[in-house]
């Protein structure tokens, strides 16, 4: 019997999360913890950021009244959008003070195992409450954690000159399951960005050998998935790892284009830049500052 794509992707995202988490845990303990992984975070802080997300996810997937592991984040998580996620990240780091890479690696493996155990028999399409009151399909939530591992593993490996690969089939899960899943579902206030909204319609068709072709339409400040591509303004062919790294600011758009990993064409190609300005993803990388920990002490973000 043929395996349906949703069931195949559900199994793939679960197996990939376990494998990627194990790779990240090994990487985390191989680079000096005080090395700067980004302009903002050390390797230890980067590991804590990923571990905190995994720990948080073990609870939000339950929806059974299990106490929130970081209750001080409840209100900020509900009110955030893509422009203010960095503030939530600061609070999460303050609420998750562990910085020993070996401990973080153990906790990450354990929490990923718990996350997979708790969700083993859940419908892959189960909506999970997320940032900005968005609802993310369960498989999308798992794909988001994989992308966090990919992105921050790239940061750590680059700073420590260690090997790190982002397989295209793994990276494709983020586009297919998370990004499309959020836009198709209830994205709450997550995509409500600041500043004036462009009026009119822009339709961009995304193509990759690893993903299902999808048309995203930005119209009067709101984005949706459009099943028909009859009125496409721009076609964008992409290599999934490069697209993800570009969307999160790790690879520049010119570099992505010049290396042939991203290619765009279409009848109104000039509309791609304004589309990408409005349909963007969180960037937690900003000038280093200090934040207060739960004990009142100061720590670097």
Along the chain, the helix and strand elements come as HHHHHEEHHEEEEHHEHEE
> What profile does the largest beta sheet have?
5 strands, mixed
User: Pairing-aware structural class of the strands and helices?
Assistant: alpha+beta
**What is the overall shape?**
globular
Strand content: 5-15%
Helical stretch tally = 10
User: What Rg do the Cα atoms give?
Assistant: 19 Å
Strand order of the largest sheet: 5-4-3-6-7
First-to-last CA distance: 51 Å
DSSP E strands, number: 9
What would you give as the CATH superfamily of the largest domain?
dinb family like domain
Low-confidence stretches: 285-301
What is the count of structural domains? 2
CATH first level of the largest domain = Mainly Alpha
The CATH architecture of the largest domain can be named as: Up-down Bundle
Helix content: 40-55%
CATH topology annotation of the largest domain: Four Helix Bundle (Hemerythrin (Met), subunit A)
Average pLDDT over all residues: 88
